[in-house]
Amino acid sequence: MDKPLMRLCCTTLSHKQRLAMTLLNASEYPVSELSELYRRRWEVELHIRNLKTHMQMEHLRCKTPSMVRKEIHCHLIGYNLVRASMIASSLRYSWKPTRLSFTNAMQALEEFLAVIRLQAHRVIDQWNTLMQTIAERRVGWRPGRQEKRVVKKQPKSYKLMRTPRNPNRNRFATTGYA
């Protein structure tokens, strides 16, 4: 008898789902562990979405590989700064960090930075306010949440540029300041 090529598992996350896989050994790869990995994959996708969309990393603007790496590193530093402030707030107010809103935490952190530029003598008070603001802005309980992949923004209706710009249009383009 031929060995099966695929294993079909039925599991319940938010609704009954079927997972088809090539991991055939059921004792080595139990359905419960596979369904937990599948659920955690959604959280990873949310983190990637936060990086790309909310931190405006969908389109990298740099041209050289070294500058693209630096741009990605800067985005990751900013992302980790927001996540660290969310963790600090969740530890202070006993909330799970996954229940706090990334977008609202990012906005609160931006406002905090703007305020301490003007009122540097009140940093501790402002930090306490930031922690409270982040803790107050929670997201709902969404176990097993899944959404279809769709594009939210409609692309601009501008025509694509198919020829180079006029080099004389920008006087800095040929002087090395680009």
Distance between the termini: 67 Å
Number of strands: 2
Count every helix, treating DSSP H or I runs of 4 or more residues as helices. Answer: 4
Strand arrangement across the biggest beta sheet: 1-2
Output the radius of gyration: 23 Å
> What coarse outline follows from CA principal-axis ratios?
flat
Task: Classify the helix fraction into a percent range.
Answer: 40-55%
What does the average pLDDT come to?
Answer: 78
**Residue share in β-strands:** 5-15%
Based on helices, strands and strand pairing, what is the structural class?
Answer: mainly alpha
- Low-pLDDT stretches: none
Give a quick account of the main beta sheet: strands, pairing sense, barrel closure: 2 strands, antiparallel
Instruction: Spell out the helices and strands N to C.
Output: EEHHHH
Oligomer: single chain
Description:
The protein has 178 residues and is mostly helical. Helices cover 47% and strands 7% of the residues. It has 4 helices and 2 strands. A two-stranded antiparallel ribbon has the order 1-2. Helix 3 (102-118) runs antiparallel to helix 4. The longest helix has 29 residues, at 65-93.
